[in-house]
Amino acid sequence: MPVPHAVDELAAAASRPLSDSPGHHPWAPSAAGGPAWRDPLVRRGALGTTLVSAGSLTPAFLPPQPAIVDLLDLQWLSSGAGRLAATALLVLGMALLVDAWLRLRPAPGSPPISSRTWLLWSLPLLVAPPLFSRDAYSYAAQGLLVGLGMDPYVVGPSATPGPFADQVDPLWLYTPAPYGPLGLQIQHLVVTLTGEHAYLAAVAMRLPALLAVGLLAATLPRLAERFGVSRDHALWLGVLNPLVLMHFIGGAHNDAIMIALVVSALLLASHRHLLLASMTVAAAASVKQTGALALVGVLGLALSDGQARRERPRSSDAAYFARCAAWVGADAAATFTVITMLTGLGWGWVANLSVPVSLRSMLAPPTLVGSLIEWLMTVGGMPDPWVELALPVVRGAAALIGLAVIAWLAWRVAPRAPVVATASAFLVFCATGPVVHPWYVLWGGVLLGATALGSRAIQAVVWVTLFLVTYGVVDTTVSNGSWALGITTIVWMGVRLHQQRHPARQLPFPSGAGWSGSAATTSSRRVS
């Protein structure tokens, strides 16, 4: 099926009249489940994250010669049987978390999911070192640079020799920061609040992420309900997803703040607060520039606004689209400029956007294809100058295709299905970009929680989630020298994938267009 036709079908399925009852506020309370801890699946997930935290104090996650190991006398976890046991705990914990998530999947007749489940699953991770990525150590070092009055857009963590620089991944030790100015000031605030303690500052980087996921848990279900989608679907797919726990909470990535602000912006825009929505998108982009893609959804909601349609002149669609786009874009650009001025960090990030590209990420389709072509050209004896062109040409072509698809989404899909268009724009940007990390998929994946997906689409999301969870866990076992545990993880995830293809109970959305009703509370959730 051609991509435009597929997105058209998804947009048609996801479009719902906005429920706009008088006096309803974007953050008005919505229905929530009963006491979360009474649910055995919630307890199973919390046990899983507790085991992950208990098994995290290994070289896979800790910086070299960490003081916490000496402080707690945990040297035995760094090698031999202790290291193997810790890795086994982590693998078991992730398996329990994934299993709880899959079984918690909402279905007609199942009790509602408690809005506090995400917090119970997150709390055990707060004391663990940064998980499945070492970015939080870089965040801490960049925050220190800001506090010392250095320009993090010019110098890297190596400019401050000592504990902060020592714990940074050598790959990023000499690279300046590519993040937005507001994101760097948040990192500076965390470093200040922790008394400039290097390891503690890195761990505390997940506190802004925790607040962001809390905001996400409050806003995503409300955004879903605005478009006739079940709040339980939004919580399950976009908040309780194991990738959110692994990378937003565990990894403390600033992507969590960005996507929480994006969801808030879309919710504001759905209530016709378009000026505030554009300003919120600017705040998201000032944390991580990718957040600017949310303007696709804000523009779509501006174009589909009832009053705007009534006042729409009889000029061409293109002219009206251009005026709305200019208004929304100008508001966001002005807000971003003000934030940049207030942070005092300037625009140095523009020159640093190529920093992440220095990593050859085989999860990125253009990089994978370009690398394969490069290898085939080398084997075929092609001249070196031609071989060296393969990767940049493929990456450049993919970027142009991605931009064209995003423009088409803004023009054709956003006015009818703004959340679908925004999620698709993020996913397209991710798929056509030169670098992909597992948490990049969450840019659009979280927003899918507010869209009405058919059963096949949900199965696809589950497959991608389990693949990326497996990727992260296996990478950890390899880093800890536990190949057997990595193979075991792959086998277990394969079994769960097979079970998802043949579920033991009815799919949550049997109609193929999304389950928009509230879950009944008369029957218990089936644990298969």
Q: Measured on Cα atoms, how large is the radius of gyration?
A: 23 Å
Low-confidence residue ranges: 1-17, 19-25, 27-34, 501-528
Mean pLDDT score, rounded? 83
**What does the largest sheet look like?**
none
SSE arrangement, N to C: HHHHHHHHHHHHHHHHHHHHHHH
State which percent range the strand residues make up: under 5%
Give the assembly state of these chains: single chain
**Main structural class:** mainly alpha
Number of strands: 0
Overall helicity = 55-70%
Shape: globular
For the terminal residues, how far apart are their CA atoms? 34 Å
Q: Can you walk through the features of this model?
A:
It is globular and about 70 Å long. Helices cover 60% and strands 0% of the residues. Among the domains are: 132-204, no CATH class; 205-451, no CATH class. The protein is an all-alpha fold and 528 residues long.
